[in-house]
Design brief:
The complex is a heterotrimer.
Chain A (H helix, E strand, L loop, with lengths): L23 H5 L2 H4 L1 H19 L13 H7 L8 E11 L3 E10 L7 E8 L3 E8 L4 E8 L4 E9 L6 E9 L3 E12 L8 E12 L4 E11 L7 E11 L5 E7 L4 E11 L2 E17 L6 E19 L3 E8 L3 E11 L2 E10 L4 E13 L2 H7 L15
Parallel strand pairs in A: 1-19
Antiparallel strand pairs in A: 1-2, 2-3, 3-4, 4-5, 5-6, 6-7, 7-8, 8-9, 9-10, 10-11, 11-12, 12-13, 13-14, 14-15, 15-16, 16-17, 17-18, 18-19
Chain B lengths: L10 H33 L6 H5 L6
Chain C lengths: L17 H7 L1 H20 L1 H6 L4
The chains are: A mainly beta, B mainly alpha, C mainly alpha.
């Protein structure tokens, strides 16, 4: 029994041989996908997109973190200090994280004698602020709009100094990262040829294979209106081994620096890294008799630093040695659940100089539960189970 | 009497913009830390008082 | 022999050897640091580095 053909359903009506009516798929399509020119672009985009998905690439991480494992985790640039310091950290809540910190320091050239900082972080907001004894403020705010978009603001305000304000937008795709950054942007609507002053940086890091990422960073800066603008391109690359236990990264920067770094996780608690920096520059040659400059000569300064980080349950040890004769180490040891000691030392063998820093870090709590937790007890005073590793 | 193109700012509005800029600047300078402390205070269960927020000593 | 009492440029300068000339050129820094980097990577990747990691 054939059902009678519904006359309003045109798709069932046979027409000329070889010319079939539009299928239901086609009738669903919009003007843009049905007309040949735009559909060509859409199809090409789809093919490229499908091909990209078939490669199953992961996100390469942000450009800022290109050599994070070496420069920020293993090396002690971020940690080293001189003089004596004491940090009093007070935690009020863990989730959302809220803590304040008082830092006292003496005998240091770069640490202020007193600084107060506060931090608040929940799932999509991170705010941090730091005020020192001279009432200069540095603050940062990160806000994640969704999984792929993070906006960042960095502020530095001090009395008698120009305010620094950096706005940043991070875009994280499935296999690429884009970052736009601008420092102290001002727009002058009067002058059409010099609309923008400040620094603007745009960067892109794209995974081309599951292991290899290539990137590009474009910098444009004009410090004052009236001065010529400066611009440059940096090239970036990062290779992560398949089982993620070693990483190579390389940068060719617009200012003439080449940086290569290598990181390896030797064992679960030991990491090692090496970084070589070559900085090309120009120095003027002066005439030996008259003392007037007669030309310029290219120079290259280079240094190589090797370092290792040992992480134990109660302590972290970092040590580096570099080709300019500097040996440095940074030790951090938890001697009580609420007290850690820090030691930072550096010896420059070529210049016969040394630096020394010692510090104490106290952890205090803003409520009963956290206080007990810091002692390794739960709210009722029973010993906490060790968190599963 | 001719009028300036709308994108050219008069001296008055330039002054006003500069004033707004300095105001924002000092608002950020003085308000940043209190803002964080307020955020933290509002999101912490036991609502610590101001002295507890600012003192480095344990509050119990 | 300080340079003060000599007419600059008049003092007989020893002709530099090829090696010394190379040692002062920027290429030397590049070469030395590249060698350091390669040697460092080789060391970190070698079983020697694993021996420096304590067994826990």
């Amino acid at each position: 029994m054939s059902t009678p053909v519904n006359i309003t359903d045109y798709t069932k009506i046979p027409t000329q041989a070889g010319v079939s009516p539009m299928t239901s798929d086609q009738t669903d399509e919009s003007f843009w996908s049905s007309n040949p020119i735009s559909s060509f672009f859409i199809d090409t985009y789809r093919n490229v997109h499908q091909h990209r998905e078939s490669l199953s690439l992961s996100n390469p991480g942000s450009v800022e973190d290109l050599n994070k494992e070496v420069a920020r985790d293993v090396f002690l640039n971020q940690y080293a200090f001189t003089g004596l310091r004491a940090d009093l950290n007070k935690a009020f809540s863990l989730n959302p994280a809220f803590q304040t910190s008082h830092t006292f320091s003496i005998g240091s050239t770069n640490l202020p004698s007193y600084a107060f900082s506060a931090l608040f972080a929940n799932d999509d907001l991170f705010v941090q602020g730091n005020v020192d004894a001279d009432f200069s403020l540095s603050g940062r705010l990160n806000y994640g709009w969704n999984k792929h978009n993070i906006s960042k603001v960095n502020l530095q305000i001090a009395h008698g100094q120009p305010t620094m304000c950096q706005l940043e937008q991070d875009i994280k795709g499935s296999d690429f990262s884009i970052n736009f950054k601008t420092l102290n942007p001002t727009f002058q609507l009067l002058n059409a040829s010099e609309i923008f002053t400040g620094v603007a940086v745009g960067s892109l890091l794209q995974n081309v294979t599951p292991n290899l990422a290539l990137g590009l960073e474009v910098l444009y800066s004009r410090s004052q209106s009236g001065t010529p603008a400066d611009s440059g391109v940096s090239y970036l690359t990062r290779y992560v081994s398949t089982n993620k236990n070693w990483i190579f990264s390389g940068q060719l920067q617009a200012n003439g620096a080449a940086i290569a770094s290598f990181w390896r996780k030797v064992s679960p608690n030991v990491e090692a890294g090496i970084e070589t920096t070559l900085q090309a520059g120009m120095i003027p040659i002066t005439d030996p008799v008259v003392g007037t400059p007669v030309g310029i000569q290219p120079t290259i300064e280079g240094s190589t630093t090797v370092g290792a980080k040992y992480e134990y349950r109660q302590s972290v040890y970092r040590g580096t040695i570099d080709s300019n004769g500097k040996i440095a180490c940074f030790l951090e040891k938890k001697i009580l659940p609420t007290l850690s000691i820090l030691f930072s030392g550096e010896i420059d063998h070529f210049k016969q100089e040394s630096k020394l820093g010692c510090g104490l870090q106290f952890e205090t709590a803003g409520n009963q539960e956290l206080l007990m937790m810091q002692q390794g007890l739960d709210a009722d005073g029973n010993p906490l189970q060790a968190p599963p590793q | 009497m001719f009028s300036l193109p709308s994108f050219i700012l008069s001296d008055e509005s330039k002054e006003r913009i500069a004033k707004v800029w300095t105001l924002t600047n000092s608002a950020a300078h003085y308000g940043w830390i209190p803002f964080i402390l307020y955020l933290g205070w509002a999101n912490t269960a036991n609502k610590p008082n101001l002295f507890n927020l600012l003192s480095p000593l344990p509050s119990i | 022999m300080s340079g003060i009492f000599n007419v600059p440029g008049a003092a007989p300068t020893k002709p530099k050897s090829k090696f010394e000339e190379f040692k002062e050129s920027p290429m030397f820094t590049v070469l030395v640091n590249s060698v350091f980097f390669v040697a460092g990577v080789a060391f970190i990747q070698s079983p020697l580095m694993e021996m420096l990691a304590p067994e826990l």
